[in-house]
Design goal:
Layout: E1 8-9, E2 15-19, H1 36-47, E3 54-60, E4 63-69, E5 74-77, H2 93-108, E6 112-116, H3 125-134, E7 138-140, E8 143-148, E9 151-152, E10 160-162, E11 165-170, H4 180-188, H5 194-202, H6 205-208, H7 218-236, H8 242-273, H9 282-287, E12 302-305, E13 312-315, E14 330-333, E15 348-353, E16 356-367, E17 370-380, H10 381-384
Parallel strand pairs: 1-10, 2-5, 3-17, 5-6, 6-8, 11-12, 12-14
Antiparallel strand pairs: 2-15, 3-4, 7-8, 9-11, 10-11, 13-14, 15-16, 16-17
Helix pairs in contact: 1-2, 5-8, 7-8
Length: 390
């Protein structure tokens, strides 16, 4: 990638905005229903921060305070920004359709951007690999978009320094024991995701023509007719006809099977396979062993992740069981931008500047000509200085 693998930023007036789990183009009948309208309103607000500070109100239970937000120096898109794994109507064309407006707003925001690939948008690994191979980034005029496979920076062990604090950014599915394919891929050094392969196949044109709007197409009916005629002919004249026959059988039987699997994959995964990691709080991610302390080599004070859709924060040693106190660090979850019904904070993001990190929830409301946000958690730079780095 471009730039140093161990970037130290000294600009005293910088700020970063981090969002994750927007699931753009996601299945509106699934468990990750995107909240496109609120996302675009938020990105419109971010875009108009250009060149000026803005005062906002922040509510915290029954308290309210004002704070200053400065224009972002960088926007970090922390995984599952697109939902390529379970797109609307099993059609990835919706990712382009739904993504046009939010990405136009991101493009128009005058700062560099970083995209960290998550588990629902893993097909972007190929883009990340191509950029890394060429030591380049996507050119967005005066600014750039860097794409990273699993974490940012590339040398995540040293992290990124903002002010006096070191940060590491990763999507967080690395902490999820239910991500079996992630473990296999890591152990063998290749990407392994058979369910995603089925989704890939279902999005080629010859497959997408079948069962459009749940109705067989004319092509499918004709194929069935040819299948019957060919079967009758082969009974009398077997031979080279077996080749087109095999291809036709594959199309007639496998294509509907692919469509059925893509329709049911989200339900099957959530019902029988997934360990509900998306419903884990930060404390549960740490305490239940989703985070592996023994393999942690990150020399940072703050780890920022998403994936579980529950915004919050917790110190690794919150239960005072950490043997090596020098490994203690703060974990911050950026939450998500999908529609939930269980009372968790929605539309959340992390705001980082030299004063520390704060996770806020976008409400879209204004009072006295100031936008109102809800506080999820706040950690000042002073409160983080006690955390050791190795």
């Amino acid at each position: 990638m471009t730039g140093s693998q161990n970037i130290i930023n000294e600009d005293p007036n910088q700020s970063w905005i981090v969002i994750s789990d927007t699931h753009i183009g996601g299945n509106t009948d699934g468990s990750n229903i995107p909240n496109d309208n609120d996302l675009c309103c938020f990105l419109e607000w971010v875009k108009h921060l250009e060149g000026k500070e803005q005062r906002i109100f922040v509510t915290n239970e029954d308290k309210r305070y004002e704070r200053t937000i400065i224009p972002p120096s960088k926007i970090v898109l922390l995984g599952d920004i697109f939902d390529l794994w379970d797109p609307e109507n099993s059609d990835r064309s919706y990712n382009i359709k739904r993504g046009a407006e939010p990405f136009s707003l991101i493009h128009e925001t005058k700062c560099d951007k970083v995209y960290v690939v998550g588990n629902h948008d893993q097909d972007l690994y190929e883009l990340a690999d191509a950029l890394e191979k060429d030591k380049s980034a996507l050119n967005l005029g005066d600014y750039k978009l860097e794409v990273f496979r699993k974490h940012y920076p590339l040398n995540v062990i040293k992290g990124i320094r903002i002010g006096e604090i070191r940060y590491a950014f990763l999507h967080g599915h690395q902490f999820d024991k239910g991500q079996i394919t992630e473990s296999v891929s890591k152990n063998f050094g290749i990407r392994f995701d058979p369910i995603d392969v089925v989704q890939d196949i279902s999005n080629i044109s010859i497959v997408k023509t079948v069962f459009i709007e749940k109705r067989p197409t004319v092509l499918y009916i004709i194929s069935l007719g040819f299948f019957v005629l060919l079967w009758n002919y082969m009974q009398a004249e077997p031979g080279l006809w077996v080749i087109p026959y095999a291809l036709l059988v594959s199309y007639v039987f496998l294509t509907p099977a692919v469509k059925i699997i893509t329709k049911l994959q989200s339900y099957i995964w959530n019902k029988f396979l997934k360990k509900k990691a998306r419903d884990k709080t930060v404390e549960e991610v740490i305490e239940e062993g989703y985070y592996n302390e023994s393999s942690d080599k990150m020399d940072v004070q703050v780890v920022i992740f998403g994936h579980t859709h529950i915004a919050g924060s917790s110190y690794l040693d919150f239960n005072n069981k950490l043997k090596d106190k020098s490994k203690n660090k703060l974990f911050v979850n950026t939450g998500g931008w999908v529609k939930e019904k269980d009372g968790r904070k929605l539309n959340t993001f992390a705001y980082i500047d030299n004063n520390g990190i704060e996770v806020l929830s976008w409400t879209g409301k204004k009072e006295e000509d100031k936008y109102v946000f809800e506080n999820v958690c706040t950690h000042t730079a002073d409160s983080l200085k006690h955390l050791n780095t190795k």
